[in-house]
């Protein structure tokens, strides 16, 4: 028998997972605690299994609870989109968009797109979340993000996502301008293996491309001393040490103060930058406007 759950019950389940208690969840969805407790009991009776367990860390979702919450977030986000669409029909200016971004998109394309949407829709609320693709794609699937913009992934496990190419971007090895390796001649890769490196995490596309460059020449890729995707952290470290890193060219062109690309032989391959959304999902007018602004900014930079 198919369980029949109300939207209020889905809201409660998500709120308990986020806040760790029935009391805090009840406050979040504006119901009394006895009402929330009854909603939870009715939910568990409807699905015929416990959804949460009590622990010294608060309410912890069971496997069934986690599955319900995963789908519940998507349902609630779709309803939010519908509400935004109705509001936009009435005012033409409202909405909320949550955007995940990787370093490649953060240099100029995303900021330009954000500024355009703010000019055109004064009441829109924009949220930007940085991270690796694995982290951001999980948030996109759960409905916590509306779209992800950055370097397109080579993963084949993306059947539930739609992707759109925005522009191509090369990557380059970067060092401080006074680095001893700057000699006016391209640096051979074997000289770089023993240098100190800051690299993005292993699961990122940029790291994959970087290591492939060495492996194709029969070299073991450098082992990074630091793994980081933090622009500010990496920039400070490189300006104040002789550490090397690999950055998208668009980032260097946008803010290259004190840093410069190091000419190498051979060079890194060109990557593709684009936008991901949930396949077949309804997008709010504000999210559609954000994607159109990304297209415009990409054309301007191209």
From TrEMBL:
<dbReference type="InterPro" id="IPR036390">
    <property type="entry name" value="WH_DNA-bd_sf"/>
</dbReference>
<dbReference type="InterPro" id="IPR050950">
    <property type="entry name" value="HTH-type_LysR_regulators"/>
</dbReference>
<dbReference type="InterPro" id="IPR000847">
    <property type="entry name" value="LysR_HTH_N"/>
</dbReference>
<dbReference type="InterPro" id="IPR036388">
    <property type="entry name" value="WH-like_DNA-bd_sf"/>
</dbReference>
<protein>
    <submittedName>
        <fullName>LysR family transcriptional regulator</fullName>
    </submittedName>
</protein>
<dbReference type="GO" id="GO:0003677">
    <property type="term" value="F:DNA binding"/>
</dbReference>
<keyword id="KW-0804">Transcription</keyword>
<dbReference type="InterPro" id="IPR005119">
    <property type="entry name" value="LysR_subst-bd"/>
</dbReference>
<comment type="similarity">
    <text>Belongs to the LysR transcriptional regulatory family.</text>
</comment>
<dbReference type="Pfam" id="PF00126">
    <property type="entry name" value="HTH_1"/>
</dbReference>
<feature type="domain" description="HTH lysR-type">
    <location>
        <begin position="5"/>
        <end position="62"/>
    </location>
</feature>
<dbReference type="GO" id="GO:0005829">
    <property type="term" value="C:cytosol"/>
</dbReference>
<dbReference type="Pfam" id="PF03466">
    <property type="entry name" value="LysR_substrate"/>
</dbReference>
<dbReference type="GO" id="GO:0003700">
    <property type="term" value="F:DNA-binding transcription factor activity"/>
</dbReference>
<keyword id="KW-0805">Transcription regulation</keyword>
<keyword id="KW-0238">DNA-binding</keyword>
């Amino acid at each position: 028998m198919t369980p029949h759950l109300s939207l209020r019950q889905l809201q409660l389940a998500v709120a308990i997972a986020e806040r760790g208690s029935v009391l805090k969840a009840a406050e979040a969805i504006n119901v009394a605690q006895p009402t929330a407790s009854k909603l939870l009991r009715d939910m568990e009776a409807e699905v015929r299994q416990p959804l949460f367990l009590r622990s010294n860390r608060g309410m912890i979702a069971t496997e069934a609870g986690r599955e319900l919450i995963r789908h519940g977030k998507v349902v609630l986000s779709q309803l939010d989109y519908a509400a935004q669409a109705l509001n936009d029909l009435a005012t033409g200016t409202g909405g909320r968009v949550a955007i995940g971004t990787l370093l490649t998109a953060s240099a100029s394309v995303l900021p330009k797109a954000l500024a355009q949407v703010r000019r055109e829709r004064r009441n829109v609320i924009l949220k930007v979340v940085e991270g690796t693709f694995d982290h951001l794609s999980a948030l996109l699937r759960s409905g916590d993000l509306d779209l992800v913009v950055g370097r397109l992934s080579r993963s084949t496990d993306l059947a539930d996502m739609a992707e759109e190419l925005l522009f191509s971007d090369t990557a380059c090895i970067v060092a401080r301008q006074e680095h001893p390796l700057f000699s006016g001649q391209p640096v051979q890769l074997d000289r770089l293996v023993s240098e100190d490196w800051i690299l993005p995490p292993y699961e990122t596309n940029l790291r994959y491309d970087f290591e492939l460059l060495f492996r194709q020449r029969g070299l073991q890729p450098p082992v990074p001393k630091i793994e980081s995707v933090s622009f500010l952290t990496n920039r400070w470290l490189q300006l104040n040490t002789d550490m090397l890193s690999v950055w998208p060219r668009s980032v260097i062109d946008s803010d290259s103060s004190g840093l410069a690309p190091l000419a190498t032989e051979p060079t890194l391959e060109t990557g593709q930058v684009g936008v991901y959304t949930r396949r077949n999902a309804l997008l709010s007018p504000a999210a559609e406007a954000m994607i159109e602004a990304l297209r415009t900014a990409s054309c301007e930079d191209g």
